[in-house]
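Hey,
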Amino acid sequence: MTTFDTGTFLSRIPFAKIGSGPDPIVVLNGGQAFVRRPTPARTARDAKRIARLLPSHRTAYVLGYDPAPPAGYSIGSIVGDVSRILREEIGPASVMGISFGGFAATRLAAAHPDLVKDLVLMVSAHRFSREGRRSVDRQIACAWQGDFEGFLDEFGLVFRRPWLNWLLRMRLKQERGRLRETMNDPATIVRGLHAVAGEDFGSNPDWLKAIRARTLLVGATRDPFFDVDAMEETARLIPSSELKLFRGETHMLPVERTRAVAKAVKAFLQ
């Protein structure tokens, strides 16, 4: 039976530990980790969803982000936290970055090659697509104004299956009355989004060549945040990488095609 434990690293970074086997996997979660208020229940729920994608015989740590990021919070801040956690707590590990977490995972692998054994980028790349960048800019504007309804409207059509988009819209409609209870405060959301959107990662992507870890990119051809061009550029510049694209899928690929995605990830990590 898989075990789940929750806690904090560095007295502030929430995590969920999955299993108790050797050869750890560290997962850098997507943007929802700083959009919603962190709770042990939410952390455990995310971990159980992510655990379906990973080999069951290995320990996995799903990391969140600083719940009170300071002014000037950046990808460098996140990479500094994760590298310290690896050096002081976990040791060298395979690293998976999901969506926005891929920005930090690639930077970590480039800056600390001794800490990253293998790298998996899940529905991610080293930069946004043009539409993805516009969407994040709209999210920042909505969050800054405290317009949580407008913020969540940016995620209204993220699934490939229409009925799942309908369910998502219904869920968001039901949550509207208590959004301020479940969403982080605007300053935290804005600082988290600025950490991934405040730097133009695509202006000179040659830093990707410093990554020495074997790398797998898993993406979708209809992902509005990370398009095929961005993923192909990432794969081309990382010296030892492979790209697996799922035709017709969207940013919610890991949810809608869990078994197929898990098969690819497990084969790579094993």
